[in-house]
Write a structure and sequence with these properties.
heterodimer, A: mainly alpha, B: alpha/beta, Rossmann fold, OB fold (Dihydrolipoamide Acetyltransferase, E2P), five-stranded mixed β-sheet, 8 helices
């Protein structure tokens, strides 16, 4: 048997790409840093870590409550618009935490939108004192929570959706009240899904850069960025990354573990019947509606209205913005990344399918762990590595510097996206690929189909919709992505996210509104297109 | 070169590095013959079919079809070039195609090579799947899926047809009818077939020959009548579960003596010296009921099987033996009644181990 073939080489390459940033961070930990960083370490490191942890705790509690409550309501009860909320509640995803933060500030700041509303209602007055201020760590917790509670919502809802009817009937049979059933049966059996959702939330929270940066909170991510940008101390940046990575890997393991147990709850083939929902009436029905509406309003309507409001009252910003260029840039990044990601995902999945090799399987596992790497770490480690490679290897051979090819270039950006989003695309293809029974391939072979013909005539048609799903998902992630794009983009190359960030960091929130609004609208469209897949109801 | 239509010669069948069946040899002499492989589940019957189809490789021996080696240590013909059809036990139907498209998948591979084609419409009618042609696989029952899978395999005009538990999901009351139809199709079109099953009645009915696979080996390969009446070993008897072994002593050229049943007469299948102690195979149809006989045993169980009763009787030495009685037999015996056996007992073939 040939051991070295295309499957191995490509899987190995991808794994290498993912491994490089981790190794770079690890090695830099032992490197000497500047005196300045010694000072920082002694004075601020504790603050970075404790801020990160407070933020984490706050977001976890918020998302747990919001995600599980809404998932419970829409899964088990029928009330006005419950079917609408079922998917509307995932729209919060379209608003990245930093854009939520801009809206929050824009509304509640002194002489902000809230002030204007009060003024137009009740005339002039000193309202600023009475308007609550959501900034600092509280603002960050709110922004991140409303933006990503959908992770908990989606996974919990899926678990509720597939929860066996027997289990719920068993509760009734034992004479449990609805509340007792919820806490004794429904939530415990969805626990792996809830934990998986929460660990995703935790990973996103720890990697968040935009919102905490906007609220000037010193967390590990902002410190990584600042020590690289302000103090030009890559080594210290990487040391901070090291601390963050320890957290992340802990979470990553929890997530993997609970996913595995969550599989236990997946329905048997053909044995699944849609459960009839309980019809709510009167006050109960109103409260269920109200709660879902409030969450939907706060997570989606509120930020989008704020952005819209500012776009309308400051139309100049709209016309100043070079939307055509931004769309073109976004399209370029999305299409390049999608093509590369999809191609490699197919190579890896197909390779695993036909070769049954354990090493290959292991390499794939490494390659998909890139999603756990916070964008900021990835970007800084990437720069560190290219700089090192350039200084030692390239210099040694006395050829031209490669820095320009890989840093501040489209290529560099796409490579970093690749590492970050490979698991999205690989797993997206994989989950449908595994649904094609291997005997189907064998049936095709026996009917005289070659491997290529089987791939083209059986696999591709079957996987069409998941390819579409993956492309949209990648696009959604890329358009929301901030730190990687911010750090690695070419000079004067902007996306909606970086434009919004740059305006916001110059305190020009009203100018940040236009690109933010575009970003959210496009992201909403993407979410709308794939909501069917996200909610996992396509097979029934 | 051998002249057998199909031949397996000294092959070890492996899956994932584990040997399932060792050193198996068998052959099909002529085109159109049907053989059945019987064995307990997990023994490797499916592996044998997969290896013949080329989905698993072999590392020793050879598999050849129409005098051409398909698999051996050095030769390997890709599955797509073998013209062997395999109907999988799990009915691999393409979920994104209709039943009709599934059935015709691969039907055109032998177009225009002079093979007498099987008329798909005929098979569709015989197997009664006309009504589901426009449905998708997830909309039909397991039994229907199995018939679809069978249809697809049949109409692809293979040189060799492999069926893995082809009727396992089909309703009991419909099964016999399908068995008859299947045999008819296979014989009419001279389709050489290897069928894997764990149902011995199915194997005996469909197979021109039956192979019994036990303990990693092909224990017996013979015509169904011979497998049933002349099982080659105690294991085969136990596997087929159609009789009990009772201790006996050879007393003459045609006689045996058992402590509970007395004298037993018949023709020995194998030679045994006078005086040796043997185990005699007693099958339910070997004993005859006779109320007047002086050999009376206790009834411990009675099963009504429609055409007959099977009485389970207990001998003095606490051994249970079964006896068939026609269901029209006028009087019935209840549990704990006495039940007479005609003696001396006469058995046509004496199978002893």
């Amino acid at each position: 048997m040939k051991t070295f073939n295309i499957w191995y080489i490509s899987s190995f390459l991808i794994s290498l790409f993912v491994i490089i940033p981790v190794v770079t961070v690890f090695l830099s930990y032992f490197e000497n840093t500047s005196d300045y960083s010694e000072l920082l370490k002694n004075t601020f490191l504790f603050e970075y870590i404790s801020n990160s942890l407070i933020l984490l705790l706050g977001v976890l509690i918020m998302t747990l409550i919001i995600g599980v409550t809404t998932a419970y309501l829409v899964s088990f009860y029928s009330f006005p618009f419950s079917n609408f909320f079922k998917w509307a509640l995932i729209l919060g995803f379209a608003v990245p935490p930093y854009i939520y933060a801009y809206s929050l500030t824009a509304f509640f700041e002194n002489y902000g939108t809230a002030y204007s509303i009060l003024k137009s209602l009740f005339g002039d007055g000193n309202y600023n004192k009475h308007i609550p201020k959501f900034d600092g760590i509280l603002g960050a917790i709110l922004s991140i929570s409303f933006s990503i509670y959908a992770y908990v919502y989606i996974l919990t809802r899926a678990s509720f959706y597939y929860q066996s009817n027997n289990l719920i009937e068993l509760g009734k049979n034992l004479g449990f009240s609805k509340l007792k059933s919820l806490f004794k049966i429904i939530i415990p059996s969805a626990r792996p899904a809830i934990v998986a959702g929460l660990s995703l939330v935790a990973m996103e929270t720890l990697s968040d850069f935009g919102a905490v940066d906007f609220f000037s909170i010193n967390t590990l991510t902002t410190a990584i960025y600042n020590s690289w940008l302000s103090f030009d101390d890559l080594a210290f940046s990487n040391q901070l990354s090291f601390y963050l990575l320890i957290f992340i890997f802990g979470l990553f393991s929890i997530e993997k573990f609970s996913r595995r147990s969550a599989k236990y709850h997946s329905p048997l083939q053909g044995g699944f019947k849609t459960r009839k929902k309980i019809e709510l009436y009167g006050l109960n029905s109103f409260f269920a509606f109200l709660l879902c509406f409030i969450i939907f309003f706060l997570s989606f309507i509120f930020p989008i209205s704020q952005m819209l409001y500012w776009t309308i009252i400051y139309p100049k910003n709209f016309f100043d913005l070079n939307i055509y260029d931004l769309i073109l840039n976004t399209l370029l990044l999305v299409s390049l990344s999608s093509i590369i990601l999809i191609i490699f995902s197919f190579i890896s999945n197909y390779g695993n399918r036909v070769s049954k090799s354990k090493i290959l399987n292991f390499l794939t596992t490494i390659s998909i762990s890139g999603y756990a790497l916070p964008g900021i770490i990835l970007a800084v480690a990437y720069i560190t590595f290219v700089a090192w490679f350039d200084n030692t290897i390239i210099n040694f051979f006395e050829i031209q510097s490669i820095k320009k090819i890989f840093i501040g270039s489209i290529l560099g950006l796409v490579l970093a996206y690749f590492v970050r989003f490979y698991s999205l695309s690989c797993n997206g293809i994989k989950s449908s690929y595994e649904k094609i029974n291997k005997t189907l391939d064998e049936t095709a072979y026996l009917a005289g189909y070659s491997k290529l013909k089987t791939f083209l005539n059986i696999h591709i048609p079957y996987l069409k919709s998941s390819i579409f799903f993956v492309i949209i998902l990648i696009s959604l992630e890329i358009i929301r992505e901030l730190p990687i794009t911010l750090i690695l983009r070419p000079f004067n190359f902007e996306t909606f996210a970086t434009t919004a960030y740059i305006y916001a960091s110059q305190d020009l929130l009203e100018a940040a509104a236009v690109p933010s609004l575009f970003l959210v609208l496009i992201a909403s469209l993407f979410i709308f297109l794939i909501s069917r897949y996200i909610l996992k109801e396509e097979n029934e | 070169m051998n002249k057998n239509f199909f031949e397996i010669k000294n092959v070890d069948f492996q899956v994932g590095g584990k040997t399932k069946v060792k050193n198996l040899s068998l052959h099909i002499e002529k085109k159109g013959e049907i053989i059945c492989l019987l064995g307990p589940s997990g023994i490797g019957k499916t592996t044998i079919l997969r290896s013949i189809a080329g989905l698993e490789k072999i590392s020793n021996g050879s598999i050849s079809l129409k005098s051409k080696v398909l698999s051996s240590k050095n030769d390997y013909v890709e599955p797509e070039n073998r013209n062997i059809a395999l109907s999988f036990q799990e009915n691999a139907l393409f979920p994104h195609y209709t039943i009709k498209k599934n059935i015709y998948f691969g039907a055109d591979r032998n177009k225009g090579n002079g093979v007498r084609k099987i008329d798909p419409r005929k098979i569709i009618k015989i197997l009664n799947i006309e009504k589901i042609l426009n449905k998708y696989p997830h909309q039909i029952s397991a039994g229907e899926a199995q018939r679809v899978s069978l249809t697809r395999a049949l109409i692809s005009n293979p040189d060799l047809l492999l069926l893995d538990e082809p009727l396992s999901n089909i309703d009991e009351n419909f099964k016999e009818e399908i068995q008859v139809k299947l045999k008819q199709i296979l014989k009419d079109h001279k389709i050489t077939t290897i069928i894997v099953t764990h149902d011995s009645y199915e194997a005996f009915y469909l197979g021109d020959k039956c192979g019994i696979i036990l303990e990693k080996k092909l224990k017996q390969f013979d015509e169904p009548y011979n497998v049933y009446h002349y099982p080659s070993s105690i294991n085969v008897v136990n596997f087929l579960n159609r009789g009990v072994l009772v201790p006996a002593k050879v007393t003459g050229q045609y006689t045996l003596q058992n402590d509970d049943l007395g004298l037993i007469k018949g023709n020995f299948v194998n030679e045994h010296k006078v005086g040796t102690k043997v185990k005699l195979l007693l099958q339910p149809e070997d004993l005859e009921h006779d109320d007047k006989s002086n050999l009376q045993l206790d009834v411990v169980d009675k099963k009504f099987k429609g055409t007959n009763f099977i009485y389970t009787l207990k001998t003095k030495s606490n051994k249970n033996i079964s006896v068939f009685v026609h269901s029209h037999h006028v009087h019935q015996h209840q549990i704990n009644d006495k039940f007479g056996i005609k003696n001396p007992i006469h058995i046509k073939h004496l199978v002893c181990f």
